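User: Just a sanity check before I run the rest of the batch. Below are the structure tokens for the first item. I only need the designed sequence back.
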């Protein structure tokens, strides 16, 4: 039963269901039933047994590998990390983006309220959906995509909701004429404000999708993608639009809690190892942020790389052969168009 609970993500209480116990008794009349607490103990025992097996297998591997909690503390104890494990931990990029964006969106709930409620109202009934589709057809609009409904736990659905609603803005006004109970039809001002917000959120959404890729390496993308987000937030802090300005201010507070302005030493080293960028991109980005601290930050990155290289050189005779990155070739260059023209005095 413990293996079934793990494999099928069943609740521990599953072992106490009368139907389940009847099946077990039918298959074996002498079977002893267990409680949910016993099931929990057995599942945890299986987990710890498997964890020990994984630890032993990883410890026997001679190559350098990437590990995550809770194995990190174990490897520190047996002194298996280079540089005392200083370059092991890196924060989840998409989690940070999620926290940063959600902090900003809390400030503009009223600006997108009517659009959110309109979509919720229309999608709440099959008959309303049919009416809305008729409105789209009568207006000669292309039905290229569905309306996304917002989800409070996932900010990217807020962006998708706004982006999916724009092509049908005339249909919402037309639907209002057919349904007297439709009280939350977005005004022209609502649409104008929503377009500004969606434009601001688009880079966050695109980078989240990029970081979620599984068919190409992503470690070398973090540094300049977070730099792009940081520069966008700093720029929009001075926006003439009060909603965008308020979003950017709240985002900057959260951003500083996680990254401040160095984007983690691991991310900066990873982009240096990308043969398309090397140290020049790090210099370019740091200079854009603050020319006065550029040299100091670049020196830290160089020192970290030398330290890591020195440990590899002294602890391993294995020749390290790199491979070309692929999967995002043309896409990444758009973010740093000025980079090709950059000549750093750093």
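Assistant: Here's the designed sequence for the first item:
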């Amino acid at each position: 039963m413990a293996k079934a609970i793990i494999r099928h993500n069943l609740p521990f209480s599953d072992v106490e269901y009368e139907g389940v116990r009847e099946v077990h008794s039918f298959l074996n009349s002498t079977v002893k039933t267990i409680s949910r607490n016993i099931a929990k103990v057995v599942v945890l025992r299986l987990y710890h047994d498997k964890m020990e097996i994984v630890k032993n297998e990883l410890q026997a591997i001679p190559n350098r590998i990437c590990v995550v909690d809770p194995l990190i503390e174990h490897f520190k104890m047996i002194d298996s990390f280079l540089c005392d494990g200083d370059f092991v931990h890196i924060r989840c990029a998409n989690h940070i983006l999620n926290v940063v964006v959600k902090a900003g969106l809390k400030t503009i709930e009223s600006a997108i309220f009517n659009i959110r409620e309109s979509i919720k109202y229309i999608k709440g009934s099959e008959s309303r959906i049919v009416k809305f589709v008729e409105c789209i057809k009568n207006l000669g609009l292309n039905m290229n995509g569905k309306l996304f409904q917002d989800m409070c736990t996932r900010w990217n659905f807020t962006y998708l909701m706004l982006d999916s609603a724009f092509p049908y803005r005339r249909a919402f006004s037309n639907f209002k004429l057919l349904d007297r109970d439709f009280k939350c039809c977005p005004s022209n001002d609502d649409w104008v404000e929503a377009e500004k917000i969606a434009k601001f959120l688009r880079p966050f959404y695109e980078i989240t999708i990029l970081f979620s890729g599984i068919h190409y390496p992503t470690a070398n993308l973090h540094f300049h993608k977070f730099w792009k987000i940081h520069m966008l937030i700093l720029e929009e802090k001075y926006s003439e639009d009060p909603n965008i300005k308020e979003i950017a201010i709240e985002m900057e507070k959260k951003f500083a809690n996680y990254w401040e302005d160095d984007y983690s030493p691991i991310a900066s080293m990873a982009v240096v190892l990308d043969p398309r960028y090397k140290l020049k991109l790090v210099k370019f980005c740091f200079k854009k942020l603050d020319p006065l601290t550029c040299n100091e930050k670049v020196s830290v990155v160089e020192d970290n790389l030398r330290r890591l290289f020195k440990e590899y050189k002294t602890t391993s005779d294995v020749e390290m052969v790199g491979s070309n990155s692929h999967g995002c070739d043309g896409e990444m260059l758009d973010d740093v168009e000025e980079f090709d023209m950059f000549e750093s005095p750093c």
